[in-house]
Amino acid sequence: MDVHTGDGTIAIPAGRVTLSDRRTRRSWPVDLAPYRLAAFPVTQAQFAEVTGERPSSARGGQLPVEGVSWWDAVRFCNALSRRAGLAPAYRRRDDTGDAEWDPSADGYRLPTEAEWEHACRAGTAEARYGRLDEIAWYRDNSRERIHDVGGKQPNAWGLYDMLGNVWEWSWDVYDAEVYGAYRVLRGGGWFDEHWSCRASVRRRGHPDFRIDDVGFRIARSVPR
Fold first, then answer.
1. 156: β partners
2. Running DSSP on this structure, what letter comes out for residue 110?
3. pLDDT tier for residue 96 given thresholds of 50, 70 and 90
4. How many CB atoms lie within 10 A of CB 84?
5. Burial of 26 (0-12, 13-18, 19+ CB in 10 A)
6. Which of 11, 48, 97, 160: disulfide with 3, CB 3.0–4.6 Å?
7. For 180-217, how does the pLDDT look when each residue is reduced to its tens digit (9 = 90+)?
8. Do strands 167-173 and 214-215 pair parallel, antiparallel, or not at all (unpaired)?
9. In Å, how far from its chain's centre is CA 162?
10. Is the pLDDT of residue 97 over 80?
11. DSSP code of residue 43
12. What's the whole-number mean pLDDT along residues 14-32?
């Protein structure tokens, strides 16, 4: 597929994905409309260009930005949208302190976890879209450090680093009844063992949580 646009996003086809949670032993199907997803995680150079900030502990323009919270990612999406003349997807609700997503907005946003997993799998049903050493930076091959984006093989839809290198924030709440506002992280990171670098693995993080193996990539809705 690999249909790029000038903003570096790729067209992802509609489909259905079945999400699962090992903790609750629950699974649920999600139907998805077409959308667009960035070929790479947001880099430090991109983040600095849009926000003027350099939060990462490792330094390098083509390294994935890390040390960013979920809120940092939301603010980046809105700032990038305004910069591109698009309608921001998010606004902060003063009554709850949470963010509200406007699905009709044409601006940049975080993928939902269903969108993330659908894109990661790229039409496959396996835990990974290739041999792990060929597609991901993880504990066994990363030399315990982060790496430039795009250094491993992409999946069939032209998406790089979907597994390994940095965990990626998604829009979704992990489990509101148990963990409140905690959001879902996907993909595994450079310091993780192989079992964390699978398409179905879910991790949670507080929206203010920042650490050196967590970043994000951007998505856009496709007008219907």
1. none
2. P
3. low
4. 14
5. exposed
6. 11
7. 999 999 999 999 999 999 999 999 999 999 999 999 99
8. parallel
9. 8
10. no
11. B
12. 93
Residue 16 to residues 98, 124, 162, Cα–Cα distance (Å): 28, 12, 18
pLDDT digits (tens, 9 = 90+) for 144-159: 999 999 999 999 999 9
Compute CA 159 distance to the chain's CA centroid, rounded to the nearest angstrom.
11
Place of tokens 């951007």: 218
Calpha distance 116→113 (Å, rounded) = 5
Nearest to 76 by CA among 104, 99, 93: 99
Over residues 37-64, the pLDDT tens digits come to 999 999 999 999 999 999 999 999 999 9
Angle, helix 70-83 to helix 44-51, in steps of 10 degrees = 70
Contacts of 101 (CB under 8 A, 6+ apart): 89, 90, 109, 171
What does each C-alpha distance from 49 to 58, 99, 133 come to in angstroms? 17, 24, 32
Cβ within 8 Å of residue 150, ≥6 positions away: 39, 40, 62, 160, 161
Residue type, 94: D
Q: What is the pLDDT of residue 95?
A: 61
pLDDT for 1: 46
Residue found by looking up tokens 């982060």 in the block: 146
Pair of tokens at residue 209: 């949580």
d(CA 145, CA 2): 28
Supply the pLDDT for residue 19. 95
**What's the length of the chain?**
224
For 80, the token pair is 């990038």
